Amino acid sequence: MFTSLSDRLTATFKNLRGKGRLSEADVDATVREIRRALLDADVAVPVVREFTASIRERALGAEVAAALNPAQQIVKIVNEELQGVLGGATRRIRFAKHPPTVIMLAGLQGAGKTTLAGKLGKWLAAQGHKPLLVAADLQRPNAVTQLQIVGQRAGVGVYAPHPGTTSEADVPTGNPVQVARDGVTEARNKLHDVVIIDTAGRLGVDAEMMQQAADIRAATSPDEVLFVIDAMIGQDAVNTALAFQEGVAFTGVVLSKLDGDARGGAALSVASVTGQPVMFASTGEGLDDFELFHPDRMAGRILDMGDVLSLIEQAERSWDKAEADRMAKKFADQEDFTFEDFLAQMQQIRKMGSMKKMLMMMPGAAGIREQLENFDEREIDRVEAIVRSMTPHERVAPKIMNGSRRARIARGSGVTVSEVNQLMERFTQAQKMMRQMARGGGVPGMPGMAGPGGFNSPRKKGKNAKAAKSSRSGNPAKRAQEAAAAQARRERGSQPVNTGAAFGKDAGAEDFDPSALNLPAGFEKFLGK
């Protein structure tokens, strides 16, 4: 969504690198580029004006002049100001002291309210709540049916006493205000602790829609009124948000379709213009593509600083603990890494979602955006097909796979033999790394870790290697004596060990009595008796 804005800002900051001191002209040029980037991204003009004025004031102040790295200080200022534009601190749902908590969704038609109701319901259910979706949109054709299907997929209950309309020719007959009121009563009777009311929208703001939304709010007294806005709406986002703020007085904003390819800057203006924070973001079409909105993390994504915290949280939600424990036990027992384990790990990664989205959360991802865009998500499917085309024995004993077996696997998975060979090579490398780690050697080639090429490697490099060389004498006669002594030590080490010496007796002494040591029964066999 914010690709263009991120690229422009990243390019602007590159011009500041290497400068030990920033003049007023440097600051003005940077602020000018930031202003152009924001305007090109459809950010509202009043927001841009206030944003750049604050950056310029802070950039010319003491905090930059006294900084060791002025360029990094400018980036820090932009990051903090961007967080302010996005709403400041993370805002979470305020739950009612006495359930149920009533959440009302409002917005234009097509913003994604109905789908978002299911996403929010599933998100709340995963946190231990028992939500109920209320179908109060009786105007849009098949809106009630859509909510029922979404609720079924999300695994949450749906209250839909009225079928609504089925075509544009139908005249709405139900009372959405009464449906919303009855829905809250139904939730209270059935012990649902959260109610999510899906309301009707229009293609544009009109008095009838606002009045209906205001009546539903008055009838249900919601704890939260969430304004759902399409992140691709453009400059009209500010006017629409102000109209809903005046008509419904929403308490939070939800950005939908944040995975689109529009410039999306107008969505950044909503929180600043209305004074209400962005609380959630919808990042895809799936019911799991929904996340709590963190202004600091979103600012980091825009400035190409990455969002590692969200990536970790996503991994924790999707990772199977039992599978992780099984792999940990395999490491502890030093068992070999097999294709069965390889397949299980791939399935764990697939549960986390799109590989592109995950990689784009890494710091510096903007520099390899082109490669990430060309990344084929179906590559994981092809690898899985190859592994599933193997027999159970081949998966645990890959060494038996000769040419005919690989040809059979290629035919079974619909790929070429060369692709099977490439997978085998990658798997062999992964297997070697796993063996090294299981032995406690660390990752091969990683500095600071044990293993070949690491700091704990037995190979000496640099000064240590020179010290090893300098420890040998330069006198040929003395070197010969040292070599003879080393050979004698090796010969002594290869001779049989005196097994009786540990007990103060010579080897083969017949007067030694093992019973005098009070050893357990049967232990004498280890003493050669």
Describe this structure in words.
It is an enzyme of class 3 (hydrolase). Residues 440-529 are annotated as: Disordered. Its main location: cytoplasm. With 529 residues, this protein is an alpha/beta fold. Helices cover 51% and strands 7% of the residues. It has helices at 3-14, 24-40, 45-59, 62-65, 70-85, 113-126, 143-154, 176-189, 207-220, 236-247, 265-274, 295-302, 308-318, 321-332, 339-351, 355-360, 369-373, 378-388, 392-396, 403-413, 417-438, 462-470, 476-494; strands at 101-106, 131-135, 157-159, 194-198, 224-230, 252-256, 278-282, 290-292. The protein has an eight-stranded mixed β-sheet, sandwiched between helices. Strand 5 (224-230), helix 10 (236-247) and strand 6 form a beta-alpha-beta unit. Helix 6 (113-126) runs parallel beside helix 7, helix 8 runs parallel beside helix 9 and helix 20 (403-413) packs across helix 21 (417-438). It is globular, with a radius of gyration of 34 Å. The model is unreliable at 442-470, 494-512 and 525-529 (pLDDT under 50).
What are the defining features of this structure?
23 helices, 8-stranded mixed β-sheet, alpha/beta, 529 residues
Topology:
Blueprint: H1 3-14, H2 24-40, H3 45-59, H4 62-65, H5 70-85, E1 101-106, H6 113-126, E2 131-135, H7 143-154, E3 157-159, H8 176-189, E4 194-198, H9 207-220, E5 224-230, H10 236-247, E6 252-256, H11 265-274, E7 278-282, E8 290-292, H12 295-302, H13 308-318, H14 321-332, H15 339-351, H16 355-360, H17 369-373, H18 378-388, H19 392-396, H20 403-413, H21 417-438, H22 462-470, H23 476-494
Parallel strand pairs: 1-4, 1-5, 2-3, 2-4, 5-6, 6-7
Antiparallel strand pairs: 7-8
Helix pairs in contact: 1-2, 2-3, 3-5, 5-12, 6-7, 8-9, 10-11, 15-18, 18-20, 20-21
